[in-house]
Design a protein that fits this description.
The chain is an all-alpha fold. It contains 11 helices and no strands. The chain has a single domain, classed as MetI-like fold (Orthogonal Bundle). Helices cover 85% and strands 0% of the residues. Helix 3 packs across helix 9 and helix 9 packs antiparallel against helix 10. The two termini are 24 Å apart. Pfam families: BPD_transp_1. It comes from Siminovitchia acidinfaciens.
Amino acid sequence: MKRYGLSLLLVFIILFGWEIGARQYGKPFIIPSPVGVLVRLWELRDVLLLNHLPATLAVIIVGLLLSLVFGVCLSIWMHDSDIVRKAFFPIVIASQTIPVIALAPIFVLWFGYSIWGKVVVTVLITFFPITVNTFDGLRSADPHLKEVLQTMGASKRQIFFKVELPSALPHFYSGLKVAVTLSVIGAAIGEWLGADSGLGYFSRRMMTQFDGAGVFAPIVLLSLLGIILFILVGLLEKMTMKWRNEN
């Protein structure tokens, strides 16, 4: 608790200032107060938690799984082959220069209001940090240690699992922590632009009804979802990297 004391104090000050400012402004359909948002969140708890949260969570999970498979496999492939690295790495970089929010309506045209349009948006946002961080981690392996193992007759597979993979794990988890938070943003963007369910869709629907607190209520859930996913990745990192914690 002491570790996050200053952060919690800062958040409290911001929320307190927001509450006072919103009450003074007196237009909750534009700037709702934090208390008003919490009250509205409680009022909408059933429809949000039972209908829209599962839809958003499905997009996030599927998108993250695809990004993990695609990103890790591509990073290993680029690490093993200079030709693949020269061919794909510039494309990976260039993919992040395209504004995803401009592509989202196209995905709606292609996939309709199904889950796959939102999943593609999520993958485009999340695969980059996983791919680049894992690739950098594989390349950061100690070359002297690899040479020692080679002189001892170790195979390429043994070197990968004994040296390169442990070296890449910290970088991989750093990329995954970024990706899980971005996945929430990707899912919300996809739902905002074209969906019939999900927290992003519900927030947009409340905006058309000039319900300021209703707009913020699903945003609060999205923020909490991102925090929970980040914490889960941190716990998974500690469980799978006990050797690093012990050192």
